[in-house]
Design a protein that fits this description.
The chain has 363 residues and is α/β, with parallel strands linked by helices. α8 links the parallel β6 and β7.
């Protein structure tokens, strides 16, 4: 519709849905009748194709092909194959992304790799900067890394762009890494990825982006932003399901020299040599660690990443920005100081629009 604020009647909503290029995708997910699902930020809905694919993996690949599936059904290559699809979604180019482990573990890997690079190039840099409202696991992993290294590293927290600029200036030549979550999990605020990365680099710091609430929801271009590392999960807007692997991305400029601290056998150059000593694999595969979660990776690879790749987050982002709530007495709960921004909205007590009315209008 030409006037998005006119979506205040059922007929207007039905007409807008009919003209929406994304409307047909709802039928590709299993959702209870009458439910308007707005919790994809915590767990994405189940793609219809995933159930059938899961049965195929359980009954044929595991049940009949057994150990032969590592080769016949390409189980061993899953992390790099899925990582390639995710890399395309986040603007990471080819070969720099693997789907593996959990977000927390990948934070530890990326941070360890970044700190090692800085230790080699600028051994006096000891300050890690993150945001106070970051998802707690990111901060916990930094705290654990600082304690584990026990080498004078320090975590400093900021709140917004102004305090980040102040902290970078105050840290001077001590700033080693800036690690931020692109879209805030509470408020929906979005950092200017390109501008913040440039500011971190000007201060001599490396930049790590957490894309847990970005990948699949908003356009991301790590290459254009000149980011150094990125991590994220797949069970939210990539609809991987509970237990689906997270991902880690390494910029091509660091890929050759980057080394992560968890040297497991899947990250070995020749894992089936069963060698006594560790030799890291080439490319992003060196960021793998232990045996991968096949049952939570295999069904989702075809059902979710292919759909996301064909649809693109840009279309979904354009749709979200075309809807306005001003005619329903909604207000933004997010500060307007970051641009452009995803936003949560909260309803005033006097608002006449109710969740039940939204549900009726969507049926």
């Amino acid at each position: 519709m030409s006037d998005p604020t006119a979506l205040n009647t059922r007929d207007a909503c039905v007409a807008a849905d009919a003209a929406d290029p994304l409307a047909g995708f709802r039928d590709e997910f299993l959702l209870p009748e009458g439910v308007v699902y707005l919790d994809g930020n915590s767990l994405g809905a189940l793609p219809r194709a995933a159930g059938e694919r899961a049965r195929e993996v359980l009954e044929q690949e595991w049940g009949r092909d057994l150990i032969g599936s590592w080769n016949k059904n390409h189980w061993f290559e899953l992390p790099t194959r899925i990582g390639g699809k995710i890399g395309a979604l986040i603007g990471g180019g080819e070969g720099g992304c693997v789907a593996t482990d959990t977000t927390s573990i990948n934070v530890f890997k990326a941070l360890g790799a970044a700190l090692r690079i800085q230790r080699e190039d600028h051994p006096d840099r000891r300050v890690i900067i993150s945001e106070r409202e970051n998802f707690p696991t990111d901060l916990y992993m930094v705290e654990g890394m600082v304690e584990f290294l026990d080498d004078g590293y320090e975590l400093r927290l900021i709140d917004d762009e102004a305090s980040l600029a102040d902290e970078l200036a105050a840290s001077g030549d001590d700033a080693a890494v800036v690690m931020l979550t692109h879209v805030n999990y509470r408020s929906g605020r979005m950092w200017d990825m390109t501008g913040i990365t440039r500011r971190a680099h000007e201060a001599g710091a490396l930049m790590i982006w957490d894309l847990c609430h970005s990948a699949g929801a908003v356009p991301v271009d790590l290459t254009a932003a000149a980011a150094d590392f990125a991590i994220g999960c797949t069970y939210k807007y990539l609809n991987g399901g509970p237990g689906s692997p997270a991902f880690v991305w390494i910029s091509p400029k660091h890929l050759e020299r980057a080394e992560q601290p968890l040297s497991g056998w899947w990250g070995h150059r020749r894992p089936f040599d069963m060698a006594v000593g560790y030799a890291p694999a080439e490319g992003a595969a060196k960021f793998l660690c232990g045996t991968q979660p096949i049952l939570s990776s295999r069904p989702w690879r075809r059902a979710s990443t292919s759909r996301c790749a064909s649809t693109g987050a840009r279309c979904a982002r354009n749709r979200s920005r075309s809807r306005r709530c001003s005619s329903h007495s909604w207000r933004s709960a997010s500060p307007r100081t970051r641009s452009p921004s995803s936003r949560l909205v909260t309803r005033r007590a006097a608002a006449v629009t109710s969740v039940s009315a939204i549900r009726r209008a969507s049926r």
